[in-house]
Amino acid sequence: CVCVCVELLDYDEAEEETNGSFSETIRALHEDQIQAVLKYTSRWNMNSKHCRVAQSVVNLVLKNYPPSSILKFDGIKQVVEGLIPYSERHYQRLSRLQQLA
Asked: What is the pLDDT of residue 56?
């Protein structure tokens, strides 16, 4: 699943599309599929190699679903609790890299 997401993201970036294949694919998922992908994002976000995909999925979900709907997702509390610490680490890492540039 992560490999497909990476390919779609890479394609969209190469084509400079903001509403490309990746966005369309995520938006086309049913609510139960979104819940499943969100559970994967916690694992993907633990690895700096896959954090871009995880953050992109979370971004699209937050943009396309109202908070009241997201709060009803099964296991959303665990997903958010899993995302926060690694997201903070990735942010700090990117901030350090930006300062060095």
From this structure: 92
Cα 55 to chain center, whole Å?
Answer: 3
pTM of the model: 0.84
Q: What does pLDDT average to in each consecutive run of 10 residues of the chain (101 residues)?
A: 82 73 89 93 92 93 93 94 94 92 82
DSSP labels, the chain: -HHHHHHHHHHHHHTT-SSSHHHHHHHHS-HHHHHHHHHHHHHHTTSTTTHHHHHHHHHHHHHHS-HHHHTTSTTHHHHHHHHHHHHHHHHHHHHHHHHH-
Both tokens assigned to 46? 């633990």
Sign of the dihedral defined by the CA atoms of residues 79, 67, 55, 60, in that order: positive
Query: What tokens does 44 get?
Result: 């993907």
Q: Which of 32, 31, 25 is nearest to 9 (CA)?
A: 25
